[in-house]
Amino acid sequence: MLTHGTAAITGASSGIGAEFARQLAARGYDLLLIARRQPNLERLASDITASHASQVEILSADLADPQQVERVAARLAELREPTMLVNSAGFGTTGRFQRVDVRKHLDMIQVHLAASLRLTHAVLPAMVKRKRGAIICVASIGAFVALPGNVTYCATKAFLAAFSEGLEAEVRPAGVRVQVLCPGFTRTEFHDTPEYARFNRASLPSFLWQSSAQVVSASLRGLERGQRVVIPGAVYRLLVGLGDLPIVGRGLRANIVRRLMFSRKPEARGTR
Ligand SMILES: NC(=O)c1ccc[n+]([C@@H]2O[C@H](COP(=O)([O-])OP(=O)(O)OC[C@H]3O[C@@H](n4cnc5c(N)ncnc54)[C@H](OP(=O)(O)O)[C@@H]3O)[C@@H](O)[C@H]2O)c1
């Protein structure tokens, strides 16, 4: 396991990104925490420095804004030992494609795709030069199922999966690992936005929910084993595996997922 140097984490102000920060600090990393909500980042930084020896820097930035992404990329390119980049920033929308404000779709492409790609491009040269480093892109189980009501979300996550797998093949010989992490429903602030006001977590079976600690532990375990694709939770691995069986196929898998997860009206559906 890579144990020192700096881990840069987007989406570090809550949920999965904040949990990466806590678990990586416990493994001896210094941290660069990136998100919009500076007070959250400051609180997390002070919790971490109170209990770990890590140096923690925070960088408040809106990754939907290309100029702010450039500012973050410039800081990443300056890091002496960028050992890990976790692209975790993200959000969901609810409802049919044409009913969602087009700016939300475009912001999603910017945050999920453009920012992840830009920041990966900024840290890779130093990792390749040192023959050491890891990139983790947080996609979703949605990368495997194109669901009505979540089309841009699933499409951006499918891009991240394809991007990570292709990049991994390019940089593994140079000693750099790339992982795409594909969680299912995870208890974070993801479903706490006004958009999800009608989303009721209890409407989903409890076996579909995981904690961010479970998700991040699975990711870091997978990194140690050199796993390119990490799907935390046996139930989700089974669902994804089903689609690879010729007798089931992708279409039926999407139907199973839809029935299991989304028995409500499209507007009340959640993404993950
Ligand atoms: N929770 C789930 O069920 C689930 C399942 C599968 C995949 N995921 C993925 O996991 C990742 C993390 O989500 P989470 O579950 O941890 O949700 P979360 O608690 O809401 O965290 C999302 C993070 O993304 C950041 N973010 C969102 N928009 C941003 C922007 N424009 N600029 C900068 N940062 C931004 C947020 O920070 P600020 O608001 O402070 O900017 C926050 O730190 C996302 O990519 C999500 O798609 C989540």
Describe the structure.
This protein has 272 residues and is an alpha/beta fold. The protein has one domain (6-268): NAD(P)-binding Rossmann-like Domain (Rossmann fold). Helices cover 46% and strands 15% of the residues. Helix 1 links the parallel strand 1 (6-10) and strand 2 (30-35). Helix 3 (66-78) packs parallel to helix 4. The protein is globular. Residues 264-269 have low confidence and may be disordered. Bound molecules: NADP nicotinamide-adenine-dinucleotide phosphate (NAP). NADP nicotinamide-adenine-dinucleotide phosphate (NAP) is lined by residues 11-17, 35-37, 40, 62-64, 88-91, 111, 138, 140, 183, 185-186, 188-190, 272.
Topology:
Elements: E1 6-10, H1 15-26, E2 30-35, H2 38-51, E3 56-60, H3 66-78, E4 82-87, H4 102-130, E5 133-138, H5 151-171, E6 176-181, E7 186-187, E8 210-211, H6 212-224, E9 229-230, H7 234-244, H8 249-261
Parallel strand pairs: 1-2, 1-4, 2-3, 4-5, 5-6, 6-9, 7-8
Helix pairs in contact: 1-6, 3-4, 4-5, 7-8
The chain binds NADP nicotinamide-adenine-dinucleotide phosphate.
NADP nicotinamide-adenine-dinucleotide phosphate (NAP) is lined by residues 11-17, 35-37, 40, 62-64, 88-91, 111, 138, 140, 183, 185-186, 188-190, 272.
What's the shape? globular
CATH fold type: Rossmann fold
Rg (CA only):
18 Å
**Largest sheet, order of strands side by side?**
3-2-1-4-5-6-9
Structural class of the helix and strand makeup? alpha/beta
> How much beta, percentage-wise?
5-15%
What's the count of strands? Answer: 9
Q: CATH H level: which superfamily?
A: NAD(P)-binding Rossmann-like Domain
Ends apart, CA distance between termini: 28 Å
What CATH architecture would you give?
A: 3-Layer(aba) Sandwich
The ligands found in this model are: NADP nicotinamide-adenine-dinucleotide phosphate
Order of helices and strands: EHEHEHEHEHEEEHEHH
Q: How many separate domains?
A: 1
User: Percent helix among the residues?
Assistant: 40-55%
Work out the helix count.
8
Mean pLDDT rating: 91
Name the poorly predicted regions: 264-269
Q: For the record, what CATH class applies? A: Alpha Beta
| Biggest sheet details | 7 strands, parallel
